[in-house]
Amino acid sequence: MDLSKSSRNSVIPSYLYSFSSQKSSSLDAPTPTATAFNGAAAAAAASASSSAPRSRSFVVPSPSEPFGKIELYSPAFYASCTAGGMICCGLTHTALTPLDVVKCNMQIDPAKYKSISSGFGVLLKEQGARGFFRGWVPTLLGYSAQGACKYGFYEFFKKYYSDIAGPEYSAKYKTLIYLAGSASAEVIADIALCPFEAVKVRVQTQPGFARGLSDGLPKFVKSEGALGLYKGLVPLWGRQIPYTMMKFASFETIVEMFYKYAIPTPKDQCSTSLQLGVSFAGGYLAGVLCATVSHPADNLVSFLNNAKGATVGDAVKKLGLWGLFTRGLPLRIVMIGTLTSAQWVIYDAVKVFVGLPTTGGAAPVAAIELAEE
């Protein structure tokens, strides 16, 4: 297989996006004899001309193009992915704030919040319905910033690393490309998230500390200094980097398997609703894996941001190794599974809206044929 004739966009995009044909100018021009035919013969000649072989080039199939055609890996492409990431992460995390509040309190005070059901009951009794939405502002702003960096830089690093590896190795080790791209993106995304996460946890787990971000942020800085906002950065990396690597790599793989083994129709021939359904299913399965892998670090982040001067050793001593891996895990699986599936649907819906294809999927036949020429 000669991959040297692939487009400059490297091989990795051929596993994610479709190719389509374009007419060459020489084939579109009418033949001299066509003018001598009557109307019916001219129509037949035009029909035959349209079925002749045509040159192929890399284009994005666009069900809608409200902003004009967006070229892959152009500034407009990365801007669209960044906007999609900001919307999908900000909205979904904010919508699940009640689950997050209960989860964080179960991690901080397991003696008081013994289970999911009792946790909701205790919170409702002590803080009322408003207690379930404590910290929603830092959640919205923090995860919007994180999502923008996570998805935008993932698309950038995926392309960047595939170009470094070259066509042959990019195709052979595409999963490693997904892992490296997502890890690099998450390092940047967590720097944006960390200050908001610190304030969010303190507001959610210490009633009376602050009403929200506006008064919680200056109070936090006054108490622990500006650098205190990044006290949980390393544990946050420990939670989010494995989580994101699993989230993106497993999603890409699961979606590819769906189109390869479960759906008989090629992806580029599937309806938009079916493709978004695949994104939802793939996202939920990926979310279950994400939650399990990253949960110990999630417990550490909640513990360290709740107690001033707390250390990792203090967390392990209080929660125990078993508690570190299991405390709040069932609730987090439900939360992250729902969260991840919703994020992928919203993200891909934004891409479809601007005329881009959905994420993931088996290599289309046209791409394989082009690579083999």
TrEMBL record:
One of its GO terms (cellular component) is mitochondrial inner membrane. Keywords: Membrane, Mitochondrion, Mitochondrion inner membrane, Repeat, Transit peptide, Transmembrane, Transmembrane helix, Transport. It is found in: Mitochondrion inner membrane. Solcar repeats lie at residues 76-160, 173-257, 274-353. InterPro entries: MCP_dom_sf, MCP_transmembrane, SLC25A3/Pic2/Mir1-like. It is a multi-pass membrane protein. One of its GO terms (biological process) is mitochondrial phosphate ion transmembrane transport. The keyword Transmembrane applies. Its main location: mitochondrion. Pfam families: Mito_carr (PF00153). GO terms for molecular function: mRNA binding; phosphate transmembrane transporter activity. Signal peptide: none annotated. PANTHER family: SOLUTE CARRIER FAMILY 25 (MITOCHONDRIAL CARRIER PHOSPHATE CARRIER), MEMBER 3, LIKE-RELATED-RELATED (PTHR45671), SOLUTE CARRIER FAMILY 25 MEMBER 3 (PTHR45671:SF10). Transport of phosphate groups from the cytosol to the mitochondrial matrix. Mediates salt stress tolerance through an ATP-dependent pathway and via modulation of the gibberellin metabolism. Belongs to the mitochondrial carrier (TC 2.A.29) family. This is Uncharacterized protein.
